[in-house]
């Protein structure tokens, strides 16, 4: 379970919450608390009833769906640009996804009841999250194309860039097994792709620690999907 800290004002480094007018953000401050999420913590499993929402401030979470014939596939990577618990925006209380903390850090948490009350009282919050749902729909469309048509090396480069964007740093922990699960490919494919990126001096990988050495080179190696959803986010939700 998440490790709790004392209740305080909501951190404004979550981009969704920071985009709210002051009075609406104060409503969030009065109806939530800050928690420390630990890497590997499972937030929800498919079929679970959602009891809380999370707005990551300096943590990263993976949302995965487990097809019947595969261990799983990441469908969303969420950092301080987004939130966990989006079905509740539409009044749906059950999740179909497995949600796990990919990178440890703080998040702002609200109960289902607190969140529902905030949506009723804040038109600005409702409008903002409706736009966020549109961004997620666009990301989902891109994922289908990316998974079907793009090579593992390009998809891995894209994932590394997305993760770097969310952790705001150059180094993070992930194993080859974990990457294979997240990208829905065999481990040998990840090993070949990571080796190729390392040989080009774009990344350094050792014992589950990846360091991005050349971000511009990594962007050149990534498929064209990287940046499209990010551009849409900026257009709909602002920088």
TrEMBL record:
Keyword check for Transcription regulation = yes
Instruction: Kindly list the GO CC terms recorded for this protein.
Output: cytosol
Q: Does the keyword Transcription regulation apply?
A: yes
Named from the GO MF annotations, one term is: DNA-binding transcription factor activity
Give all residue intervals belonging to the HTH crp-type domain. Answer: 150-216
Entry-linked InterPro entries: cNMP-bd_dom_sf, Env_Response_Regulators, HTH_CRP, RmlC-like_jellyroll, WH_DNA-bd_sf
Could you tell me the keywords of this UniProt record?
DNA-binding, Transcription, Transcription regulation
Stored PANTHER family: CRP FAMILY TRANSCRIPTIONAL REGULATORY PROTEIN (PTHR24567), HTH-TYPE TRANSCRIPTIONAL REGULATOR ARCR (PTHR24567:SF74)
What name goes with this protein? Transcriptional regulator, Crp/Fnr family
Q: What organism is recorded for this protein?
A: Allochromatium vinosum (strain ATCC 17899 / DSM 180 / NBRC 103801 / NCIMB 10441 / D) (Chromatium vinosum)
């Amino acid at each position: 379970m998440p490790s709790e800290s004392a209740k305080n004002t909501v951190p404004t480094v979550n981009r969704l919450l920071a985009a709210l007018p002051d009075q609406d953000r104060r409503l969030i401050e009065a109806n939530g608390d800050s928690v420390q999420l630990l890497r590997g913590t499972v937030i929800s499993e498919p079929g679970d009833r959602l009891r809380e929402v999370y707005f990551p401030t300096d943590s990263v979470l993976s949302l995965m769906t487990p097809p019947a014939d595969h261990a799983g596939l990441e469908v969303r990577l969420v950092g301080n640009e987004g939130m966990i618990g989006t079905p509740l925006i539409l009044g749906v209380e059950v999740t179909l996804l497995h949600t796990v903390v990919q990178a440890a850090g703080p998040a702002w948490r609200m109960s289902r009841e607190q969140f529902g009350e905030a949506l009723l009282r804040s038109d600005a919050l409702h409008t903002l999250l409706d736009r966020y749902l549109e961004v997620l729909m666009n990301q989902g469309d891109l994922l289908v194309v990316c998974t079907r048509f793009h090579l593992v090396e390009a998809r891995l480069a894209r994932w590394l860039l997305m993760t770097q964007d969310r952790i705001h740093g150059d180094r993070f922990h992930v194993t080859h097994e974990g990457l294979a699960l997240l990208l829905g490919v065999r481990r040998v494919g990840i090993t070949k792709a990571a080796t190729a990126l390392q040989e080009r001096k774009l990344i350094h990988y050792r014992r589950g620690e990846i360091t991005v050495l050349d971000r511009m080179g990594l962007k050149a190696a990534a498929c064209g999907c990287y940046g499209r959803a990010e551009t849409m986010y900026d257009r709909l939700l602002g920088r």
